[in-house]
Hints:
Layout: E1 9-15, E2 20-25, E3 31-36, E4 41-45, E5 51-55, E6 65-70, E7 76-81, E8 86-91, E9 97-102, E10 107-114, H1 120-127, H2 131-135, H3 144-147, E11 153-159, E12 164-168, E13 172-177, E14 183-189, E15 195-202, E16 210-218, H4 220-224, H5 226-256, H6 263-274, H7 281-291, H8 296-306, H9 308-352, H10 354-357, H11 364-409, H12 416-419, H13 423-436, H14 441-447, H15 477-484, H16 486-489, H17 503-528, E17 530-540, E18 554-558, E19 564-569, E20 574-579, E21 582-588, E22 605-614, E23 617-624, E24 633-639, H18 647-650, E25 670-673, E26 679-681, E27 687-693, E28 698-703, E29 708-713, H19 719-735, H20 753-758, H21 764-770
Parallel strand pairs: 21-25
Antiparallel strand pairs: 1-29, 2-3, 3-4, 4-5, 6-7, 7-8, 8-9, 10-11, 11-12, 12-13, 14-15, 15-16, 16-17, 18-19, 19-20, 20-21, 22-23, 23-24, 24-26, 27-28, 28-29
Amino acid sequence: MLRAMPAFRQVGEKQLPQEVVFMAWSPERDLIALANRAGEVLLHRLANFQRVWSLPPNENTGKEVTALAWRPDGKILAFGLADTKRIILCDVEKPESLHSFSVDLSITYMHWMEVTEESSVLTSFYNAEDESNLLLPKLPYALNTFFYFYRLNALVLGGSSGFIEIYAYGMFKIATVNGVAGSCRGLCLSSDLKSLSVITEIQSSSDSEAEMTYFQLDTSLLSSYLPEVTRMARKFTHISTLLQYIKLSLTCMCEAWEEILMQMDSRLTKFVQEKNTTTSVQDEFMQLLLWGKASLELQALLMNQLTVKGLKKLGQSIESSYSSIQKLVISHLQSGSEALLYHLSELKGMALWKQKYESLGLDASGIDEAITAVGSFILKANELLQVIDSSMKNFKAFFRWLYVAMLRMSEDHVLPELNKMTQKDITFVADFLTEHFNEAPDLYNRKGKYFNVERVGQYLKDEDDDLVSPPNTEGNQWFNFLKDSTHLKESPLLFPYYPEKSLHFVKRQMEGIIDQCLQKPADVIGKSVHQAVCISLYKISQRWNDKTSNLHYVLFTMLENSISKIHILRRHTDTSRSVSNGILAVEFGNFLNSSINESSDSRCYSCLDAHFYDDETITVVLKESVQQEGKERVLAQLPLSSLYTDEDQDRKFNWDSVERLDEQSSEIPTRTVFLESQWRVLENMKAQYVSVNGIRKVSCVLSSNLRHVRMFEMDVEDDGEVEEEEEEETIQVAAGEPDEPNQPVDGQDNVCDASAEELPDETEELETSLDP
């Protein structure tokens, strides 16, 4: 028998409180992301399976995680949620959402790839400095820090009912793919963007068996226009980032506005409802301003309800709140809007270069509408600044006068500097009272109040209603000029102005127009994608359709020659791999139990799970098929070079596309593999699934009860095994024996021996159902 030479070192083991449904290794770090059935996303380190952070489920994001994917640089983790149909992009450094977007259907699989194609045009573009950094002011809080990436990368989403979408840099949709049937179980976009491979599960009715089908889609438009797609995707990402930035800025402005600012409106409304006189509120305050005398009811309102202390607090709150909103508008909202206008204008220039970008669906007229919408938003932001500036001056003068009047009512000492009030100040306060203290019964019917003294909050309301107190444009010379000039009013050089609408309304209108404008390239590119290959693979029984089985039915990769190489790991006995125009089936022979008669049946192991470790190796989890107690589970590396020989060229498999692949299994050339090394028995563990990272040379094995995990370094031998082998070699040399292979030994160094014995798998019933 061949000598066992396991080369995997166990570095961690843990029993988890919740069932794990997805695992994904970071491509750049020794970090693994897990999603459990409770909807929690966790990040663990390789060493001792130490938790880095956890992101609990919530109502806003969702609770049912259905897919995980890492950005190629390992700095962002994406996950999909079925209950809210949202995609969340999370920072690897801390558990917070950096960006999120909604999709039409729940996601069942996602793949984040990087374009590795090289060309002189792309290289010069990648190396060139972004002109926007030179021409635009730097945003105080730049989301580009998280989303900028050197090469083009794309997040590919697959869902139910043939749903497939491609998002450049994980941010903005550049393709909506149609023509695929079934629910996506796996997909892969080639690194040169020439083809998209998809595995779907098609079920015609609830009581019929589902059928696994392979589609290869031609995405050559993306490949042919790769430099243009890269430039367009970068612009899309800038625009999407800036929309997110503007939304965040507006959220901060809403938080800076306080409900206490509405106190004056509510107090005056209550005063109107309770007073017994027929004198209007405006007249009451005018009498106090002009004659220094107030009615008993007004005195009660000011001294008992508003109070001197309450007036000071209200004045301070208004000044603080308005100042904060003003700074946010100037530093963030305006800067972000101007940057958005710049990038849309550049995108329009690209769209006018029809030779390059017309085939990708860029539409100059649609971008013009988006530019106009951004201009309207900038006008509304400037209007808000004017309202804030006017309100701050009005309230400051009004509160100073009212504060002195209330001090006199209470017969307190008034400081000389506060007691001075010019005729200009009196006129200013009188104008403020005339404009803001008019009773409005119509307003009471709409908002439940008679007054709208505070004018800033209405701009921050996220509602479709018109402004309660729109700006007064009577006597405005520019408005009169536009009104009298019909041609100028309709000029495309002037941005439309919506005086009756809130800032939130104009922002939502702008987002809708931009989304509609940038949706066209996704539709055009999606329609260019066409089906090149459609192959029915095999049927699966009902018992495999439950959510406890997240096994990838088919593994595949896209190689450099742009021909799809399909690696099919069948559930029970063999593994098939397409080679050029043929299929090669792989059976795992006996390499563990020497008591088995090797000639009786070479198929001694069934494959439970498998993933590509790298381009030349597949990592598999095997289970003994022989009928004996304690079927061992084995973690093994299958080198693809051991599968191909010159004989395979003479035994080509003629694929009949009319029949399913499993119906042609007897015609497929079969290779029986006896693993000589690179395998390890997984003791005391009913292993079922594996997740690997060939770059970091690590793996994580998950048990059938979905709660027991073991971590391995794949290219490092256990210390105990190395010492044992060296000792045996020394004895052999001393005895003068030839160096012959030994029988397989069970001498694995389990760093968690104690815990492994104490932590048996909990779900025996599930294990039974998973057996072939």
